[in-house]
Design goal:
Chain lengths: 226, 226
DNA sequence: TTAAAATGTTAGACGTATCTAACAAATTAA
DNA sequence: TTAATTTGTTAGATACGTCTAACATTTTAA
């Protein structure tokens, strides 16, 4: 006797990682293509292809051959739930466990898959129902509601504007180590002194009136307001 | 070109769970048999058989057909490292996150597989390098050294003796819920009033001079000293 | 000391997640 | 608008962890 189990709502660790990436990468244009996912997830395109077929069966994505991949409402809910757990974990690691913002992402990648509402509810409670993670990213609430901000990348701010750093668009250690070196952090206000046309680098003046230069690569990963 | 990677020291989540069980179940007699492992891990005997072949190749166990399974020093080190993480996680969940001792085991089963020394070192530090988990089990130190105690099961204590509950030999929720109901906890002193010859049940007198009866099944899972 | 029962192993299968090789479609450039 | 390039799919293979069915060994009971 064989029972085909639907396994509604639940996803394997792998499926969770895929839907999270599908959601994030499709944010900008409403969809994501196979090769982008393959690159992000460090797998080959055929692997993405077969996983998308599976997620389409689960109704987490809409997927037609040779067409872009779109997240469904159901898939979005899944993704936001994992993103919520990831960001709560990161903030917990920084605020409660006193780890550095540059070292928490990799641990949160593992903690986000812990299955226990009690665990996450307590973290949420201990942190006082926080709205942002250590990198300035908004934390979706338990219903999947997430703040939709009007932040811009630092390299898109106007010259002579004073802007506040509110988030980073990358939480990999190498990048955050670099920001730590430059002394840049969330909440800091900086004046955009000059944007080089040639290479896209940006010259800033920080709180301490010290001038510092950052490359385009770095500037586009720093999100600012005002 | 094919590279056979040795993957020294590292184990998959599944392998970690097997070696932990091999270690625990072989504690009493120095070895464990296939059917015991199958029962504990909720898999069928052939599954255990093939996993033991794999662990034998990794030199974590010694395994000859139809003979009991023995842990090697290398396997013991692996097992103790996972047990350490499990128990540190449990204590963290109780002492820092204020969860109940009856609900932390299942979460710790997941947390013990988180790969991050930073994470566990911080937990250890925050807890003040603790020696026991919430169920009274000794926590191996970073070198795998573990306290070897002379605790006995409550049903093996003598009548009229006053003993201190120092640990429980089972940390499943159903059992701990039962202890919570009876008001029994670690550190509590009880007087053994009577041990029934017929069914092995034990009558105790607690701190508040109240008499209470526990079954053999419960008594053999409570560890006492003195 | 044999027969029955319990325990363990082998063979072959399956689902998941991955890959490479070969082919197909869509996009871009000539 | 054809050809080249990029992108995506299919087919078939592999490792892992699991299963069932069949067979083998060891232990226990007659
Ligand atoms: Mn992160
Ligand atoms: Mn983050
Ligand atoms: Mn436990
Ligand atoms: Mn415990």
């Amino acid at each position: 006797m064989l029972f085909l189990i639907e396994n509604e709502g639940m996803g394997s660790l792998t499926e969770e990682n895929y839907i999270k990436s599908v959601y994030s990468l499709s944010q900008a244009t409403g969809e994501v293509i196979v090769s982008e996912l393959a690159k992000k997830l460090q797998v080959k395109p055929p692997t993405v292809n077969s996983m998308m077929k599976k997620l389409a069966l689960k109704k987490w994505v809409v997927y037609a051959p040779y067409k872009g991949i779109k997240v469904t409402d159901k898939g979005k809910k899944e993704a936001l739930s994992i993103i919520r757990r990831h960001r709560l974990a990161e903030l917990f690691l920084v605020n409660v466990m006193k780890l550095g913002w540059e070292e928490v992402h990799d641990i949160a990648e593992q903690l986000e898959h812990v299955e226990s509402n009690r665990f996450y509810d307590r973290i949420d409670e201990m942190l006082g129902y926080p709205k942002f993670d250590p990198h300035g990213e908004p934390i979706p609430d338990a219903n999947g509601k997430i703040l939709n901000d009007k932040r811009i990348a630092l390299n898109q701010a106007k010259e002579n504007a004073t802007v506040k750093i509110v988030a980073v668009a990358d939480d990999k250690k190498s990048f955050l180590d670099h920001l730590n070196d430059k002394g840049l952090k969330i909440g800091e206000k900086v004046l955009i002194k000059r944007k080089e046309a040639y290479d896209g680098s940006v010259v800033l003046i920080n709180k301490a009136k010290v001038e510092l230069m950052i490359t385009h690569q770095v500037a586009e990963r720093i999100l600012v307001e005002e």
